[in-house]
Design brief:
Helix content is 80%, strand content 0%. The protein is mostly helical. The protein has one domain.
Length: 143
């Protein structure tokens, strides 16, 4: 087995797909942790019930993560992992930005709008996680 030099190792580690995947993974975990931390105060600020509405919204996000893993996986096989990586980052970024404007949405269906946005964010999060991990494992040498 051929041993890689330090410069070759660094070249692989700091390649565009690896750096983008690492940053995307960091943002994904940050989003999941932050939503868990601010979920109850944000629901109270919006006038929603943290127990009932919060559970529903969190479940919608988890279903989005589940479906997103399958959908982005199929799309990644057809269109390429890098395009899926950037597409999924765009999807969850737009969904999270839209969540910031929830106070301007009509209050009548606010819980469903919030749940839909978290569902879309979950789909995007799953795509980035799956594509990022797969892309890194395919682009780095095994040693």
């Amino acid at each position: 087995m051929q041993e890689l030099s330090l410069s070759s190792k660094l070249k692989h580690i700091f390649s565009i797909p690896v750096v983008i995947s690492a940053l995307g993974y960091f943002v994904d975990i940050y989003d999941l942790l932050l939503f868990g931390i601010v979920r109850i105060p944000s629901l109270k600020a919006l006038g929603l019930d943290p127990d009932i509405d919060g559970t529903f919204i969190l479940n919608c996000q988890m279903v989005g993560l589940l479906l997103g893993g399958v959908l982005w996986g199929i799309f990644g096989d057809k269109k390429g992992r890098l395009s899926v990586l950037f597409g999924s980052i765009l999807v969850y970024s737009l969904a999270n930005i839209a969540c910031g404007f929830l106070t301007y949405f009509p209050e009548k269906y606010l819980v469903y709008q919030y749940a839909l946005l978290r569902f879309v964010a979950g789909i995007g999060l799953a795509g980035e996680l799956g594509a990022g991990i797969t892309l890194v494992s395919e682009s780095l040498p095994k040693n």
